[in-house]
Amino acid sequence: MKNSLKITIGILLFFAGLWACTTQHSATATLGGNGLPPNPLASCTVAQDTFNHWFVSGKPSENGAVTPANSVAFPHNNNCDFYQWAEHMFMWITSPATGLYGGHKSVLESGAFYNVSPEGANGQRTLTAHDSIHPLKFTAHVVKNGADRLPVIISKSGKLFEVEVAQRNGKILQAIKGADGKIAPAGALTIDHKANAKNIVKEFMVGKTPVFFDSSGKQVQTEAGQATGDALMDQHGSLVYYLSLVNDVYAWFLTASKNGYMSGSEFPTTSTQRDSICAYARMNHVVLPDSNALAIEIKSSWVEATTLKDPQNYFTVMATIPTYDTTNKVKWTPNGEKTVKMAMVGVHIVGSLAHHPEMVWATFERMHITPNAAYTYVDTNNQVDTVKQDSGSDWLFSSNAADTMPNVSYITNVDTTVQPNITSDTLFSNNGHNIGPSNTLMANPWGSAMGSPTNAEDKSSAASNSEIISINNTIYGYLIGNDIRKNYLLIGATWTNGGAPPTGISYGVGGDTTAGVSIGTSILANSTMETYIQLSSTSCFTCHHDHSSPSLNPNELSHIFYETQKLPTSGGMSNKMKKK
User: Fold this and answer.
1) pLDDT tens sequence across 16-27
2) Is residue 38 part of a domain?
3) What residue numbers bound the domain in which 170 lies?
4) Closest listed residue to residue 41, CA positions, set 518, 335, 377
């Protein structure tokens, strides 16, 4: 009896201790040289020997050449596999180009990647092969589109809507303002995209101010500055410029599928699909040196290097950017181009992997450019520590980390030309502001909302954050000397369980944990590309999914696949030699 009592007490003490080790810790965390806590639970690391073999030479070297991750052989056992893949791919695209890639400074600038043009007047995009003569070409704006490829806004209740424009003969219709001051749409309100009508609003104008109505005719109030087509400027006065790329596998898969040589119903994930793409490229006298990388899509953000106080600590490229007549403080008009050195501040790396045709969506940022909101993590003692919101004024995208109203756009473009005007944002509540920077905050650091689960493997945001912090610290510690890649941090990556067709819903939102929800860091955003769309319920898949029926079709997952024109092929060969 006494022994039974001792055992019972022992079990109770064990579970009490277990409970205690996961309770909130009152101490505030200190940060290391990379701005991260140095003591996270080692829940996601990479073995030193594995890391060594990422390098072409088989051992780390300062700014040394790195191979791509083998996406065909991707193990997909746990979250950490995805984060390792992301780190490996980032190191590859930012590594120097060896003889395999020709005369280029970096893999990103090499013939392994193609520039994706902005949409033309006919809505089409084109692919341009890189060469050693012509610099990359950037644009000065990014338009965030939803699942229907329509621009998006955020309501004051925190819901993301897509926008249809009520227009006639190319002009936006005026709304009706009654004697009581209430505003109503002009005439009967019809949402054209009926399959997704509940998530779409119709845009009218009241004078020069846009107003939005949902499918029931109710006016939707929008957050200040959350206009579609926002532009971003750093605190030194440089606009943020953007570059879209795809790798050679993506380009030739797109071409082969559009020419009927192989199925384009899903992005490639298998060795058989890889071999078909390689064979098709060879028919057109092209060899794909890194075909195991499978299909890669990249969206990146950049500022002018000459405006930075430490440009040597950024990954840089030479690029052509649009220039503007800046004499008018509320409207800049394009007046030409210039070729300058550009510094990377953010990058999305999106890729297909074995068993994951939905593609894995990862994002990185240059460290110390945007202050973080408060977050928690699990430390080496299994205690939950809190990192307070960043403070100070010396941030590239904030002059006041304590600003109580961050992420409000002061500049925007509202037309759809390749080089639009840059204007002060007079659409909402920012009247009176000249063109200039505003204060940005990373609202959900590491892709999770404080106190909310992000996936089935991590039962809390603290546990999820620890994985990201842990692998960042590991990579930071392994890199040699002043390797430029030490200055960039993985923010997170998201995917679906088993590669299920994405539903556009983030894990745990509304209690939803079904197949197809976003997992990993499931509310992922980049402060330089989703600056004004940082919500606690949205992810990359919120916009990159088929709203009518979950699908793995590339036309639904990628916003550029359908519009992008296929590569030219040799003498109509694709039509004569279709794969049986």
Assistant:
1) 333 334 444 444
2) no
3) 159-220
4) 377
